[in-house]
Design a protein that fits this description.
Elements: H1 2-12, H2 16-36, H3 41-74, H4 76-81, H5 85-92, H6 94-123, H7 126-146, H8 154-185, H9 195-216, H10 223-251, H11 255-295
Helix pairs in contact: 2-3, 3-9, 5-6, 6-7, 7-8, 7-10, 8-10, 8-11, 9-10, 10-11
């Protein structure tokens, strides 16, 4: 059994440099094959290679991101920038960095809400209105975490963590509505030209980073920090779903294939978000009861 584990580790857990040397050409090849609409043994071999590249990108992603971050940190220009107090605080203070991320996300969500809601009312589109509801719930969760965060204790952090879980449950209904509209009415995202490749890199990067942060920030012992990373993970999963619809729209595959893939991926996203929401509610309720018993 140990030998099997060792072999699997050598195959699927590569160092950063071999991972990049395999993954980047593989992704370039599969994009070329999809763009040309090629078929046959060579095309299927490229699909298998790209699947392997995706696996090693996920397993090796944390090391690549860590190495890149260390390289940036050691760069002379970065050292000069770290002499600025605000930049230094952003780099070293986790709470401050999370607050900035939440404010940035809240601002983007508010802009999206205004855009999608206006479009939904003007075009009488349930698709845009559903997107507006989704971004509204994301904004509500970020606002709940930001509101007087600095002055709250462990009990209030747990209550906000649980409240975010409850909002995540409601958001899952909006996600289910989005998936139903995607499948039944052929709605989806469109990224013209080479923008789709940039969005693919961005979506995979944010998804990998979100998974790493959800695991990493549990060690900080702050429910608010954990909730912020859970929100980012939920948003990243929706980005992957959006990317899938855009790639199918651009590279083809037929209506039946589109419906099948969108339903499968959308269902997976909804189940994952539902699991996160239930975990947040159950875990926080358990710890709130423990605190209450200790206080009594």
């Amino acid at each position: 059994m140990k030998q099997v584990k060792a072999i699997l580790k050598r195959i699927f857990f590569l160092p950063p440099l071999p991972t990049l040397c395999i993954a980047l050409p593989s992704f370039a090849l599969v994009i070329h094959v999809l763009g040309q609409g090629s078929h046959g043994p060579l095309a299927y071999a490229v699909y298998v290679l790209s699947a392997y590249a995706l696996v090693i990108s996920i397993t090796g992603g944390p090391d690549i991101i860590t190495g890149f971050a260390q390289w940036i940190k050691a760069h002379p220009r970065t050292r000069k920038m770290l002499r600025i107090s605000l930049v230094k605080r952003f780099a070293e203070d986790v709470r401050f960095r999370t607050s900035v991320s939440l404010y940035q996300g809240l601002l983007v969500n508010l802009l999206y809400i205004a855009l999608k809601l206006t479009s939904g009312i003007y075009y009488r589109s349930w698709w845009f209105i559903t997107l507006a509801v989704y971004y509204t719930l994301l904004a509500v969760m970020r606002f709940l975490l930001l509101w007087r965060w600095g002055g709250i204790g462990p009990a209030l952090e747990l209550h906000r963590y649980r409240l975010c879980g409850a909002v995540l449950l409601i958001m899952n209904v909006a996600l289910a509505g989005m998936v139903i509209l995607m499948v039944s009415q052929n709605h989806g995202y469109v990224y013209p030209g080479i923008l789709i490749y940039a969005m693919a890199l961005y979506s995979f990067y944010t998804a990998i980073l979100a998974v790493i942060n959800v695991i990493k920030f549990r060690a900080h012992g702050s429910p608010v920090l954990s909730a912020a990373k859970a929100i980012n993970l939920a948003a990243a999963l929706v980005s992957i779903l959006a990317l899938e619809t855009a790639m199918i729209a651009q590279f083809g595959g037929g209506d039946d294939y589109r419906r099948m893939m969108t339903a499968a991926t959308g269902g997976g996203v909804c189940v994952t978000v539902l699991g996160m929401a239930v975990f947040m509610i159950v875990w926080s309720t358990k710890h709130i009861k423990k605190l209450e018993m200790q206080n009594d």
